[in-house]
Design a protein that fits this description.
Order of helices and strands: EEEHEHHEHEHHHHHHHEEHHHEE
Structural class: alpha/beta
Number of strands: 10
Radius of gyration: 18 Å
CATH superfamily of the domain at 2-127 and 221-315: Alpha/Beta hydrolase fold, catalytic domain
CATH class of the domain at 2-127 and 221-315: Alpha Beta
Number of helices: 14
Strand content: 5-15%
CATH topology of the domain at 2-127 and 221-315: Rossmann fold
Length: about 325
């Protein structure tokens, strides 16, 4: 892997392949840049593909630091922006899910010059106080556990505990047709079981803006002019126990121009569970990619997609 120059004292590790317009792929928890391994070959034929490990993940730096300053969506987006500036990249299609979805949106808000389009899966705004209802509270138990030093005592540096913990989420959050790849779990255990690595990864949840429960429970809708203006494709899975599809009903309040597609049968890990559709959605946002014009003209099922134009109208796409 290659490494960025330090920003805030932290380097980002990243993989880069292909040539053409820029694509940036931002992973989730509990994962790393290899979440995108199945997509990269599909994209590198038509794009310059950048897949970093976010701060505290994979091979990127994991120093102890104030989580709010360094590991929040703002801190992570600042690091990604600095990497893009260092590499001279702009007008990128930025794709992400889970942690990476939230960081992608923050990057588009704070550095719109770097982001041509977004392709994102939840973490997405709009749940509001529904996150405090019984079923979401039962699912989001881990966000409270991650606040405790007990998480470090029980899991950090303990390979068996790391394996059991990560495997729970890869099994529970995935859709009914996804088979957990034991080789993938082996890789993630190697990454997350290093001393300090697990705690570094959960620093994301130790911030007010990134912890899903506190963020959703206190979220407020922006004014119309403050909604994300970047053209956005939302791929929302319908078998995700922590981000139910019904929470997509508030996207109008947060995005000016978006397309929503329901990923039937897919769970939380969209790059691995809906690989072809995710790759195609990214390609459709690339300029001058082969076949894009034809694909954009092709009709899709009205039951699966809707589009919100900058004027506010919502129509089938």
């Amino acid at each position: 892997m290659q490494y960025s120059a330090p920003i805030d004292g932290f380097r980002l590790a990243y993989e880069r392949s292909g040539s053409g317009p820029s694509v940036v792929l931002l992973h989730g928890w509990p994962g790393d840049h290899t979440d995108w391994d199945q997509l990269v070959p599909r994209l590198s034929e038509v794009a310059d593909v950048l897949a970093p490990d976010l701060r505290g993940f994979g091979q990127s730096d994991k120093h102890e630091a104030d989580p709010e300053e360094i590991y929040s969506a703002r801190g992570q987006a600042r690091a990604v922006a600095a990497l893009l500036d260092e590499l001279g990249l702009k007008d990128a299609v930025v794709a992400g899910y889970d942690v990476g979805g939230a960081v992608s949106q923050m990057l588009a808000e704070r550095r719109p010059d770097l982001v041509k389009a977004l392709v994102v899966s939840p973490h997405l705004p709009g749940a509001g106080k529904r996150v405090l209802e019984l079923e979401p509270v039962r699912e989001f138990w881990y966000t409270s556990f991650h606040q405790l030093d007990l998480a470090r005592q029980l899991i950090d540096g303990n390979r068996d505990a790391v394996r059991a913990y990560l495997r729970h989420f890869w099994s529970h959050w995935s859709g009914p047709n996804y088979i957990v790849d034991e080789k993938r779990i082996d890789h993630l255990v190697k990454v997350y079981a290093a001393p300090g690595a697990f705690v570094a990864s959960i620093n994301w949840y130790r911030t007010s803006s990134s912890n899903p429960v506190t963020a959703f429970a206190t979220e407020s809708k922006p004014s119309p002019g403050e909604r994300i203006a970047t053209p956005t494709t939302v791929l929302w899975e319908d078998q995700d126990p922590i981000f139910p599809f019904k929470w997509s009903d508030q996207l109008d309040a947060f995005f000016q121009d978006y397309t929503l597609e329901r990923l039937s049968g897919s769970g939380h890990f969209t790059p691995l569970e809906a690989t072809d559709r995710f790759a195609e959605a990214i390609k459709q946002r690339l300029p001058n990619a082969p076949g894009v014009a034809e694909r954009n003209k092709a009709s899709t099922s009205p039951a699966k997609q809707k589009r919100r134009s900058p004027t506010g109208a919502v129509s089938s796409a």
